[in-house]
Amino acid sequence: MAQIRKVEGQIEIKCDADKFFDVWARKPHQISKICPHKYPKIEFHEGSSWHSIGAISIWNYVSPLGGKIEFAKTKLEQIDEEKRSVTYSILDGELMRKYYKTFKDKIEVIPKAKGENGGGTTIVKWSVVCEQKSEHAPDPKLYIDFLLSCAKAIDVHLSSA
After folding, report:
1. Cα three-residue angle 24-50-45, rounded to 5 degrees
2. Nearest Cα to 103, choosing from 66, 45, 142?
3. Contacts 24+ apart (CB under 8 A), 135-143
4. What tens digit of pLDDT does each residue of 125-137 get?
5. Which of 26, 33, 62, 93 is the most buried (most CB within 10 A)?
6. Which domains does the chain have, with CATH numbers?
């Protein structure tokens, strides 16, 4: 029996919320340059631009299930500039072929108020909503942890740039 699951996770990062959001919303191709150990290759496949709604891209990633390189064909579903959120759906790839009927992930980038010392932080929140093909599908929390670890690497890169 298929199960619909929703899982979430979040971390605090140090870099500016707008800089971080810009990478995920408009420049996802930079992620493979920043995190080649997680995303060795990200390619634009179809649409008018990386950040056009309906744009299709191919993300090669190192699977958190065994460490081999797999791919995900994704569709950009929504960008909300005001809420700094981006939603993708996965259309094809090992995840869809083996484990899930549907898989959507959403990133939200939430700036926090600056503290007394002038330093601010940003909250990065990932959520996944998926429909599993069976109870043997991997816990989608694995993918949240993978995405959050990538967010940490991007934070380090952007904070030092």
Report:
1. 120
2. 142
3. 135/1, 135/3, 137/98, 137/99, 137/100, 138/65, 138/99, 139/7, 140/5, 140/7, 140/103, 141/7, 141/9, 142/64, 142/65, 143/64, 143/105
4. 999 999 999 888 9
5. 93
6. 4-160 (3.30.530.20)
